[in-house]
Design goal:
single chain, 187 residues, mainly beta
């Protein structure tokens, strides 16, 4: 793994949540964001049958969201990462085969193994993260994820926090119930 990917995964991997943000919102009288927790780890060693020329790495992100008054939803996300070896990391979202439930697709489940030949890229495009002089990675990516659907991802990743704003739009109408970033800190 080159130094740019290593730096990126050092920031991204681990267990992070926005508990401090939620507590501050509640103290101010209104919870705006869902409670969100990510459990992210390297996953390349669990992707079998990769061609030798297929460089880059995989990470699995388990995303848990709890909106006020609702049950926790689980969304596992598999990402394929590669870099230019200088200052950029390119992220693609990979479809986890439907035969796996969200509850099965976890880093802790050692039986959760994927076959490269069953993987496909999701309609998200390639998010380009740039390593800034401040030692943070940033991206502002807009992907077309379906007919009339766009997904905007605006992130700043640093050692002390991840600032993540995800905006889903359908025919130009914002569906995301908030328009400020979720602020994650490592647990």
């Amino acid at each position: 793994m080159d130094k740019v990917l290593k730096r990126f995964t050092d920031i991204l991997c681990g267990t992070l949540d926005n508990k401090a943000q939620i507590e501050a919102e509640k103290k101010a009288g209104k919870q705006v964001h869902p409670y969100a927790k990510h459990v992210t780890d390297l996953f390349s060693h669990r992707v079998l049958n990769r061609p030798k020329e297929h460089e880059g790495i995989y990470v699995l992100e388990e995303s848990y969201y709890t909106y006020p008054g609702e049950e926790t939803s689980i969304k596992p996300l598999l990402f394929y990462l590669r870099s230019d070896g200088e200052r950029k990391v390119f992220l693609q979202s990979v479809q986890i085969p439907e035969k796996f439930s969200a509850e099965d697709a976890t880093n802790a489940n050692e039986a959760f193994i994927l076959d490269f030949n069953e993987l496909s890229i999701r309609p998200f495009g390639i998010a380009e993260y740039i390593l800034m002089e401040t030692d943070e990675f940033t991206t502002n990516h807009i992907g077309i994820v379906g007919p009339g659907m766009t997904f905007q991802l605006t992130e700043t990743l640093s050692d002390h926090q991840l600032s993540v704003l995800e905006i889903l739009r359908k025919d130009g109408v914002k569906l995301t119930p908030y328009d400020t970033p979720i602020i994650y800190k490592k647990i």
